[in-house]
Amino acid sequence: QVQLVESGGGSVQPGGSLRLSCAISGSILSNYLMGWYRQAPGKQRELVARISTSGYTHYADSVKGRFTISIDNVKTTIYLQMNSLKPEDTAVYYCYYELGPQWGQGTQVTVSS
C-alpha cells in the first residue's frame, strides 16, 4: 500500500512562494500518475498539477506559469513549487496517487495580507 504525507504548507503574503513536499512510502508503479489537488472552503476539490514518472506534466490553467510539479530521482518525493501566490490559491492541498486513488492528509496554504 502506498502512503502519502504532505508538508510545507503555511501562510504567505500575496506574491510570495511556498514549496510543498509529498513523501511517498511503498512502491510507485510507472503506469500511474501522481500529483496535487486542492480544495478551498465551500468549493469542490480541483486538480492543480499532475506528473508521470516519465516526466509528463499537466497544470490547471489557473496555476500555469506560476506552479511547478516535480519528482525526485529515486521517486520518493513529489514537490509543488508555488510562486507568485494569490489569495485565490488559499486551500488545503492534497497529494494523490492515481492507483486507488490514494490521498495524503492535506496541508493548508493560506495567502493573505
In brief, what are we looking at here?
This protein is mainly beta and 113 residues long. It has strands at 3-7, 10-12, 18-25, 34-39, 46-51, 57-59, 67-71, 77-82, 91-97, 102-103, 107-111.
Account of the protein in words:
- The protein has 113 residues and is an all-beta fold.
- The chain is 0% helix and 50% strand.
- The strands form 2 sheets. Strands 2, 4, 5, 6, 9, 10 and 11 form a 7-stranded mixed sheet that branches.
- Strand 7 and strand 8 form a beta hairpin.
Structural class: mainly beta
What is the number of helical segments per DSSP (H or I, 4+ residues)?
0
Q: SSE order, as H and E? A: EEEEEEEEEEE
Mean pLDDT: 94
Show unreliable segments.
Answer: none
Number of strands: 11
- DSSP strand content: over 45%
Taking the sheet with the most strands, its summary is:
7 strands, mixed
Approximate shape? globular
What does the radius of gyration come to?
13 Å
- Separation of termini? 40 Å
Q: Residue share in helices?
A: under 10%
